[in-house]
Specification:
The chain is mostly helical. It has one domain. The protein is built from five helices and no strands. Helix 3 packs antiparallel against helix 4. The protein is elongated and about 50 Å long.
Length: about 160
């Protein structure tokens, strides 16, 4: 697979997971546990790591099923299909899992900013899947920067 495509996918997954985790927890129970920032980052990075691995596995599976040579870049059509069937659904799943963690107390606004940025990037990817592998634009650049600034090590890495 194309290294640039894989890198773009990894970034997308990491960003999705990071931003998604910035949402609030379930406020319907009195037993909601608020994570510290350190715990939130640790758990979010674990979600991103697992998601990145799943994306890599999804690419490998796709390449095998479609007889895509290992060092050959996918066609535009294949890139769109990978984006729509592997990358974006995985990022959405990561976002949901991180959202379930709940934002650390006092960081709700910063986490919400990450989440909003991630949702916007996923929507851009859904509207134009080629953005994720064209190389000239990165809808996840802003959210990656926000993730790094917040302290994530895996989520937001490029």
């Amino acid at each position: 697979m194309n290294k640039a495509l894989l890198a773009a996918i990894a970034v997308l997954v990491a960003l999705a997971a990071l931003v998604a985790g910035c949402g609030g927890g379930d406020s319907t129970t009195d037993e909601t546990v608020t994570l510290t920032k350190t715990e939130f980052i640790k758990q979010g990075d674990a979600i991103c790591k697992e998601g990145n691995e799943e994306i890599s596995e999804g690419f490998e599976e796709y390449a095998e099923e479609n007889d895509l040579p290992q060092n050959k870049e996918p066609s535009t059509e294949q890139g769109i299909e990978i984006t729509e069937t592997v990358i974006l659904p995985n990022i959405q799943q990561q976002a949901e899992e991180i959202r379930e963690l709940g934002a650390p107390e006092g960081d709700e606004d910063q986490v919400d900013e990450l989440l909003t940025s991630l949702e916007d990037a996923v929507a851009e990817g859904e509207d134009d899947p080629e953005l994720l592998f064209k190389g000239n634009t990165d809808p996840f650049a802003e959210v990656n920067e926000l993730a790094k600034d917040y302290g994530f090590k895996v989520c937001g890495e490029e």
